[in-house]
């Protein structure tokens, strides 16, 4: 252990997304290759001597306790746990985290060591995995609010690969299997005979961890919400969501050497008539079982919306993925052509 193929695969995956800035400690991790990376895992991260590193992924993560702080993390999946090696800037990002993170190493800040905070979620504590729309993100849920993490991969391939690897590792766990359902077929298991509509597609793994995928009604709800934001001027049956993607809005900061602070996470939704940017809550929905009250904000909050007919041109950058797109809209002054949405949200 480990095989040459696995070491090669982990080395290939050990690349920080070019558009995201990370601390020196994580840059050091990203510079490790092959056997050095595996030895680093066993020396510094692994909690048990005989656990195996199976998968590595770089992703932005959100914690349930700090839903407004998105931080870069190196996600390591082993046969015992999921480790989130976090950017050390996260520790200083929010004053309210003193209970969540025990800062025992504050006296080492001026030393030659680059410290990272590592959050550990043991596989035995894992209860469910919620996959987001179009596999753009997934949420891992444990037994308490401290054990809920969302990985914003913004990439369906990375999400799919991680879920496959997680299922494979969970298959190794020795858990008592759930009793088999008696004479249950697919339709009686997932569908309602009264309505004919599918309920949330839920796969219960042999380790008793639930994998929950969005159903068609979520798209319908989203279409309804978008139509509502368009002030009801659109015929709902004809409204089609053509694209849903997690992206960043670039806010130009003049005189700034780094453009990292100007990246604002947004959900981009394209319909046949409009382009929308939403601030989406990726961590609070669906509500965890132990939640006493609903989240303080809605799942989708409209940040910006423009009509496609007002789109003048689209500028494309020449850099490789991720691609930068600039949408240039005509500044229409005639109020008769503008929806109420424009007046409400653009103002000055």
TrEMBL record:
<dbReference type="GO" id="GO:0032418">
    <property type="term" value="P:lysosome localization"/>
</dbReference>
<dbReference type="GO" id="GO:0010008">
    <property type="term" value="C:endosome membrane"/>
</dbReference>
<dbReference type="Pfam" id="PF25625">
    <property type="entry name" value="PH_NISCH_C"/>
</dbReference>
<dbReference type="GO" id="GO:0019894">
    <property type="term" value="F:kinesin binding"/>
</dbReference>
<dbReference type="GO" id="GO:0032880">
    <property type="term" value="P:regulation of protein localization"/>
</dbReference>
<dbReference type="InterPro" id="IPR053015">
    <property type="entry name" value="PH_domain-containing_M2"/>
</dbReference>
<feature type="domain" description="Nischarin C-terminal PH">
    <location>
        <begin position="241"/>
        <end position="347"/>
    </location>
</feature>
<protein>
    <submittedName>
        <fullName>NISCH protein</fullName>
    </submittedName>
</protein>
<dbReference type="InterPro" id="IPR057288">
    <property type="entry name" value="PH_PLEKHM2"/>
</dbReference>
<dbReference type="GO" id="GO:0007030">
    <property type="term" value="P:Golgi organization"/>
</dbReference>
<dbReference type="Pfam" id="PF23142">
    <property type="entry name" value="PH_PLEKHM2"/>
</dbReference>
<keyword id="KW-0963">Cytoplasm</keyword>
<feature type="domain" description="PLEKHM2 PH">
    <location>
        <begin position="116"/>
        <end position="178"/>
    </location>
</feature>
<dbReference type="InterPro" id="IPR057714">
    <property type="entry name" value="PH_NISCH_C"/>
</dbReference>
């Amino acid at each position: 252990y480990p095989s040459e193929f696995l070491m090669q695969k982990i080395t290939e995956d050990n690349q920080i997304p070019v558009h995201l800035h990370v601390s020196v400690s994580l840059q050091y991790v990203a510079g490790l290759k092959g056997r050095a990376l595996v030895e680093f895992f066993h020396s510094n991260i692994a909690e048990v001597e005989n656990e195996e590193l199976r998968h590595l992924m770089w992703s932005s993560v959100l914690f349930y306790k700090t839903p407004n702080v998105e931080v870069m993390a190196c996600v390591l999946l082993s046969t015992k746990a999921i480790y989130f090696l976090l950017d050390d800037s996260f520790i200083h990002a929010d004053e309210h985290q003193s209970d969540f993170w025990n800062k025992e190493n504050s006296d080492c800040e001026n030393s030659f060591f680059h410290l990272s905070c590592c959050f550990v979620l043991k596989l035995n504590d894992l209860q469910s995995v919620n996959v987001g729309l179009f596999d753009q993100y997934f949420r891992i849920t444990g037994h308490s609010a401290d054990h809920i993490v969302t990985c914003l991969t913004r990439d369906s391939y990375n999400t799919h690969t991680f879920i496959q690897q997680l299922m494979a590792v969970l298959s190794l766990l020795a858990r008592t299997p759930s009793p088999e359902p008696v004479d249950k077929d697919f339709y009686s298991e997932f569908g309602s005979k009264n309505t004919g509509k599918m309920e949330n597609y839920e796969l219960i793994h042999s380790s008793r961890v639930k994998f929950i995928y969005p159903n068609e009604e979520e798209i319908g709800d989203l279409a309804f919400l978008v139509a509502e934001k368009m002030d009801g001027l659109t015929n709902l049956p004809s409204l089609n969501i053509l694209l849903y993607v997690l992206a960043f809005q670039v806010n130009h900061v003049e005189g700034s050497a780094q453009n990292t602070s100007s990246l604002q996470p947004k959900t981009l939704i394209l319909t046949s008539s409009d382009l929308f940017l939403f601030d989406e809550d990726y961590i609070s929905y669906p509500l965890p079982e132990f939640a006493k009250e609903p989240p303080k904000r809605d799942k989708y909050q409209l940040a910006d919306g423009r009509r496609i007919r007002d789109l003048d041109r689209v500028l494309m950058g020449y850099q490789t993925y991720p691609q930068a797109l600039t949408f240039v809209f005509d500044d229409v002054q005639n109020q008769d052509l503008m929806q109420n949405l424009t007046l409400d949200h653009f103002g000055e």
